[in-house]
Amino acid sequence: MSVPSLDVVNTLQQVGTGESDRIEYTAQIDPVFTIGPKVHGGTLQMLTANAALAGFIATAPADKPAAAGLAPIAVATNFLGAPDPAEITLQVWVRKRGRRVSLVDVEVHQNGRNLVHSTITIGTPDIESHYSAPSSLTELPAEPSGGVVYIEDSPMGDIMHLGAILDIAIEEKSIAFARGQKGDPVFRMWVRPKTTTPDGLFAILAGDISAPVVMNLGLFGWAPTMQLTTYLRRNPAPGWLRIESSSTEVGHGWFEEDHVVVDSTGNVVVQSRQLALIPDAD
Length: 282
Hints:
Layout: H1 6-9, E1 13-19, E2 22-28, E3 34-35, E4 38-39, H2 41-58, E5 71-79, E6 87-96, E7 102-110, E8 113-123, E9 148-150, E10 166-171, E11 186-193, H3 200-206, E12 225-232, E13 241-246, E14 254-262, E15 268-277
Antiparallel strand pairs: 1-2, 2-6, 3-4, 5-8, 5-12, 6-7, 7-8, 9-10, 10-11, 11-13, 12-15, 13-14, 14-15
């Protein structure tokens, strides 16, 4: 059975003619973009970011078209519910058109409910850095070699279905839980699309690619994300993306999880932070 490409899931169908600063799209989400039975949060961020930029361009006044090279450089998402893998409606509202920074709201609706609300900042991503802090990611080779676990070949592949469309390789020594041990809540991994070259939208998806890092603390189960904010710092170079996901504060009710994503050249392409619920032991 064939699986859809990232281009397919990012295909938007406009609903109606739209109006000044407002437009509506539909998109079809295949079950491959799920964690368990529900749609993956990074996929929803990618879709809302795509709709925001498309809507911003489509509703621009004829005498002031959108500039070239714009991208969704910040995406702040509140998850009000968990969509099913099926058709969704994306309602886009351009809140501000600025010279350097613009703001767009996107709501995801399904079965008459607003399940996701994203606020997207539109601007021009960086190209080079003035300064980039040292990171353990730079110690990882640009491509996975020995000592890795591929998602689709592991028990996690039964839950994280993205392995059918993405190559996801986890540094084996960072997943202590897989050895029946506990360790720091830190995972390191590599990811790339199976059939296309990574772009900015894919990098946004990669900012939420990790399983909950609290698994290394012996905390297993569904850890729903309440809020996720992702920064697209620059567009990635071709090749694998390297990712470190980590947490510095794990409570009894909540934990935060950060992703840093670098491309094959070692440049930071995405930074993200989410607030999630501790898995229910029951």
